Amino acid sequence: MTILLFVVGVIAVIGGAEMLVRGASRLAAAAGISPLVIGLTVVAFGTSSPELAVSVSAATAGQSDIAMGNVVGSNVLNVLLILGASALIVPLVVAQQLLRLDVPLMVGASILLLVLALDGSLGTLDGSLLFACLIGYTVFLIVQSRRERDPAVLGEYQQAYGTQPTGGVLRQLALVAAGLALLVIGSNWLVDGAVVFARWLGVSELVIGLTVIAVGTSLPEIAATIIAAIRGERDIAVGNIVGSNIFNILGVLGLSSVIAPGGIAVAPSVLSFDLPVMIAVAVACLPIFFTGWRVDRWEGAVFLGYYVCYTSYLVLRATEHDALPHFSRIMVVFVLPITALTLAIIAYRAWRARVDRAG
Fold first, then answer.
1. % of the chain residues with pLDDT over 90
2. Is the model's pLDDT at 325 over the cut of 70?
3. Which of 156, 163, 171, 194 is the most exposed place for a label (fewest CB within 10 A)?
């Protein structure tokens, strides 16, 4: 019954997110909102609605580890697994706006989250600050998108989000309402099942949140990003991931912290390991994205390799395996320094190439 409850919860959350995004997108189109605005806001935030539903449900139930682990795990997974797999399918194009605005904002939001969590919790004031930042970011996106005049950008978003028939308003409102209902019900089932799983397997709720729940709630991003990459809408694929990560931090944790009685407790292991990993992953996007404004297949393979290492560490830590100290030593002494050096060389060469072209 627990497995059935968990699986049905995942299906309900994914189905609810799909219905919510579809209905909200068509309502926005019927209201005369441009496809670019729809793509940057409704779709990017809508694919993160499972994380929102699950984290709010967990936070209100006092299960802070699931609420926090869901967001941190999803953000790491979005970049390392989803972008990595998508880049292996086809090299991904990175829009310049992402490097100038959205990726730095993703890095800044990640650092802000760590700073706010240093006292061991995210309280009402912390959540209010995060959510206020989300409102400011959304307003800025809308203003900037209304100034967009690039025919190629407008055409791509029109193809991705603006070709669907709008249908009747009441029908789309019903779709949105049904999607929200499925999200609420499914998230409760998913969290309840995850708690039972954690106790049955003898691992912490944090590990379940960082792995199983993070994968389950990220399925809409996985589908949207890989489909966009296959269709050739490659900058939309990258933009969806970056936008979702920003929403996860500012919106999901912000709202969860405001709603949760007493806020969200942040485990010491999250402060010492998981949040720094999330920040490192966000920072790693900058030099990789700078290489010709694209994510090549070999870079996607690097992302995937690191996701395997991250997940392996979580499993070894949860089971207290004897191999954990050796694994950690190899990562710290060899793998991480080599990767950092490689990224620095890539960034330097990209910078030199731009200087030479400018000169």
1. 19
2. yes
3. 163
